[in-house]
Specification:
With 301 residues, this protein is of the alpha+beta class. The protein has seven helices and twelve strands. One of its GO terms (molecular function) is DNA binding.
């Protein structure tokens, strides 16, 4: 395959599944590409946390890592996922870098590892990256992954921002990408409401109705065993998140996504008269009210 190609192969063995491959040219050196793709939380907003628990040296200068990854739940009707993987990185004789990753099975010690509360242990198909240096600079990146290909888009955005840094002093593209990244991760935090992030359940009527959670700021007094709101300090602030979920019977996901896209302005407009943005950071507030970043620009990445 040439640059900017994508394909998929159905797997009939090992319980079935699908392996997808994409290939693209990136204006970054192979070492920089490897550094970015291994830092999954920086480009995959659905990745909550990635921890390297152990490293071992391998033959030919290779490196083996034991990695624990936590993934956000996509909706309130699903569970958060985590998986344990072995990741192998090595350099080939032609200068190419290879990064391979696959799940650890129950026979490899994972069964004895306790599952974090709120998570479901899952596995991923073998995946990885082949990063080939190009003669005139840059890298040819081949991605084999059963999850997504957001990394290739992120690599190109980083390369574009590096090229723009010397031309424009204020890089609006990097600012917008960083704001969008924080927006999505903040939404994922609110949907999942992990207790180790400080979220406390106030009202919970089940996953398919309404629930309310609170994340008090460090200035707030911690809530004790009581569920009463009277135990919360009235000053100091914090975040209260109300979540409502509904199961739509007989509605295909593609039809619902198409409907939301066609009516995007009805639910994403930040400048609407019925919506008032209040914040202690006047620069952010004025930017939103003044339409500096439209809702389509923010949500599109």
């Amino acid at each position: 395959p040439g640059p900017d190609s994508i394909g998929a192969i159905a797997l009939s063995h090992s319980g079935g599944g699908a392996a997808a491959q994409t290939c693209g040219l990136v204006e970054l050196e192979p070492i920089k590409v490897a550094e970015i793709v291994k830092n999954r939380p920086s480009w995959l907003q659905d990745c909550r946390r990635l921890e390297i628990l152990a490293t071992f040296n391998a033959d030919r200068g290779g490196l083996v890592e034991i990695v624990h990854t936590q993934m956000y739940a996509p909706t309130t009707l699903a569970a958060s996922r985590d998986f344990w993987t072995l990741r192998y990185t090595c350099c080939l004789e032609d200068g190419s870098l290879v990064i391979c990753e696959r799940s650890l099975t129950a026979g490899q010690g994972v069964q004895a590892i306790p599952i974090t509360p709120g998570f479901v242990r899952t596995e991923i198909l073998p995946s990885g990256y082949l990063i080939r240096p190009c003669e005139h600079g840059g890298s040819m990146v081949i991605v084999v992954d059963d999850m997504n290909f957001k990394v290739l888009r992120h690599l190109r955005s980083v390369a574009r921002e590096r090229a723009e840094e010397g031309l424009v002093g204020n890089n609006q593209t990097a600012l917008l990408r960083g704001f969008s990244h924080r927006l999505v991760r903040g939404f994922n935090d609110a949907v999942n409401c992990f207790t180790d992030d400080g979220w406390i359940s106030i009202i919970s009527d089940g996953p398919s109705t309404v629930s309310v959670c609170m994340n008090p700021s460090p200035n707030c007094r911690r809530i004790g065993q009581s569920d009463s709101l009277s135990s919360i300090s009235p000053v100091g602030g914090g975040i209260i998140c109300a979540k409502a979920s509904i199961l739509l019977q007989g509605v295909a996901p593609a039809s619902f996504v198409r409907f939301m896209q066609e009516h995007r302005t009805a639910w994403t407009e930040l400048d609407g008269g019925s919506c008032q943005v209040t914040t202690s950071r006047t620069s952010t507030s004025s930017a939103l009210r003044g339409g500096k970043y439209s809702s389509v620009q923010v949500l599109q990445p």
